[in-house]
Amino acid sequence: MKHAATPLLCLLAAACATTAENAPSEQVRIPLETLQSLTREMSTDAFQGRAPGTEGERMTIELLAREFQRAGLRPGNNGSWYQNVPLVEITAQGSPTLRVTGGRQPLSFNYRRDMVAGSYRVQPRVSFANSDVVFVGYGVNAPERGWNDYAGLDVRGKTVIILVNDPDWQTQGTQGTFGGRSMTYYGRWTYKYEEAARQGAAAAFIVHQTEPASYGWNVVENSWTGPQHHLDRAGGNMDQTVANGWLTNEAARQLFAAAGQDFDSLAASAARPGFRAVPFTGLKASMEIESEIQRQQSRNVIGILPGRTRPNEYLLYTAHWDHLGLCARGRPDEICNGATDNATGTSALVALAQTHARRRPERSIVFIAVTAEESGLLGSRYYAENPVYPLARTVAGINMDSLNMAGATRDFVAIGAGKSQLDGMLMPILERRGVRLSPDPSPEAGYYFRSDQFSFARLGVPFLYGRGGEDLVNGGPAAGRAWSQEYRANRYHQPADEFLTTWDWAGAINDLEIYYELMTRLANGDDWPNWNEGDEFRAIRDRSRSGR
Questions:
Q1: How far apart, in Å, are the Cα atoms of 227 and each of 93, 111, 118?
Q2: DSSP 318-379
Q3: DSSP 121
Q4: CB 364 within 8 A of CB 377
Q5: If you ran DSSP here, which 8-state letter would residue 110 be given?
Q6: Less CB within 10 Å around the terminal CB: N or C of the chain?
């Protein structure tokens, strides 16, 4: 993300010069009735929140296969609509407790209230006892950026406490060692657990803070409790930590105080170059987690619109069909229906398939509804690592995760702008529509690394992830910000994310028209977009394309 400040108008003169040669020659009409009816259906209680491995999955994937066929697609996986994705479901039993001794007073952190935790290891019981506790700042090891929070440290068998986001997340603007306000992958919780495991830690706990995490504790609680899905890999994930989890901010402050440390001062020092990890001398952490283990096959749903003249060159549309299922057990409404996230994006796959099928493109367009995004991008990662269509022959892609339901906007936000040459191709489309490109209003959230486009980007395929911005035609930026803040606070990953008759679909339609125009240009043209020079994914793409 360090290149996010690059002016987009000067990224690709060649791409910008061909403004209309491959633009759609017909009036684009995205079928609103398809979007509305499918979004409403998939977010009813009958689908039980569309969790992988449930009856809700069966209902969802069968619905999508029928709708793909009706739209004019062909089965996308060697005659089948489905790609099996081997998952293991791990469900913590009871209420595990994190116990800390050896400090000013013993501490006992309760499940849900003070912390959440689980294990990636495929074992019915895991535990760690009397594990030394170490504060490792942001838990980053980035030699190319001259930063290593684990320098000179041996954390094998220890419990590491980690801050969320990057060291420079409070910097205004996008300049800095880690992209300033714009999050890099080093700021994502997935990276922090991966690095802790590489360092040999027994357990890793991230301190929750609402602003740098970009969501409240309620989101952590809903997302991390109940069944957790992982790819079912050889070895049972025994190379991972015994336990991963989150601590509330208050619990972390109690932990630091028990070690005679001040949370605020240590957090401030962790953001400065030269920070060295701080062992919490004398503190010992212990925990046992009993889990129910179930192996299951989930499925990606794949349809293809074969190209007329270059069927072996592929464009991808992706959206995740899954959500959190029964995320609030014991409450009046237990179901996280996931209407916005992501029944809207999944319905858009069908609507766009109907639109593209009116005129077959030169290249093939593949439509993939992926599973287990909410569990860590598992379905898209499985496809990217086991592609039906070679990634070296995959031109580019567009991912759709939560459509804009606030209404038409005067601006469009490309998440991760400045990373790939797709930006240059997007600009003339926006200009023709009188829409300006705005910077990401929440760069600290790291959205580019939080949805399925990242699974493909990390293996070199350029992917666009964007949507209408916050400058609403009706209400301006203030109304747009208010809508976004209300959604994140009250509906994101909560039972309240339900189909609303008050939604304004104009913004979603506008965004889908933009996706359609970009995809049509790519599908009927000769472009092979790449990542911009210096981007972390450029070398991967170059190697992939050189061997095609």
A1: 10, 15, 10
A2: EEE----EE-STTSS--EE--IIIIIIHHHHHHHHHHHHTTS--SEEEEEEEES-STTTSHH
A3: S
A4: no
A5: P
A6: C
Largest CA distance in the chain: 73
Burial 59-74 (b: 16+ CB within 10 A, else e): bbbebbbebbeebebe
- 505's CB contacts (< 8 A; 6+ apart) are 32, 35, 36, 405
Q: Answer yes or no: is pLDDT of 199 > 90.
A: yes
Long-range contacts of 452-455 (CB under 8 A, 24+ apart): 452/318, 452/319, 452/320, 452/370, 452/373, 452/377, 452/379, 452/380, 452/399, 452/401, 453/318, 453/397, 453/399, 454/185, 454/377, 455/377, 455/380, 455/381, 455/383, 455/384
CB 102, CB 282: distance < 8 Å:
yes
Residues 6+ apart with CB under 8 A from 163: 137, 138, 139, 206, 207, 209, 212, 267, 270
Alpha-carbon span 433 to 514, nearest angstrom = 9
Burial class (CB in 10 A: 0-12, 13-18, 19+), 485: exposed
Residue pLDDT, tens place only, 333-370: 899 999 999 999 999 999 999 999 999 999 999 999 99
Which of 319, 506, 469, 485 is CA-nearest to residue 401?
A: 319
What is the separation of C-alpha 125 from the centre of its chain, rounded to a whole number of angstroms?
29
Burial 395-428 (b: 16+ CB within 10 A, else e): bbbbbbbbbbbbbbbbbbbbbbbbbbbbbbbbbb
Residue length, the chain?
548
| Cα 287 to chain centroid, rounded | 29
Before 342, cis peptide (omega within 30)? yes
Residue in 207, 228, 216, 249 with CA at minimum distance from that of residue 493: 216
Question: What are 496's two structure tokens?
Answer: 């309240």
User: For all residues of the chain together, what is the average pLDDT?
Assistant: 92
Q: In the structure encoding, which two tokens stand for residue 44, read together?
A: 């009813």
CA distances from 348 to 39, 310, 316, 356, 513 (A): 9, 25, 13, 12, 11
H or E element that contains 40: helix 32-42
Q: State pTM to two decimals.
A: 0.83
pLDDT of residue 26: 56
d(CA 469, CA 293): 42
Quick: pLDDT tens for 473-496: 999 999 999 999 999 999 999 999
Whether the pLDDT of residue 20 is over 60: the answer is no
Tell me the Cα Rg of the chain.
Answer: 23
Domains of the chain and CATH, by start: 8-86+297-546 (3.40.630.10), 90-293 (3.50.30.30)
Look at residue 479 and give its three-state secondary structure.
Answer: helix
Considering only residues 172 and 32, tell me which one the structure prediction assigns the higher pLDDT. Answer: 32
d(CA 49, CA 46): 8
Q: How far, in Å, CA of 116 to CA of 123, rounded? A: 18
Beta bridge partners of 216: none
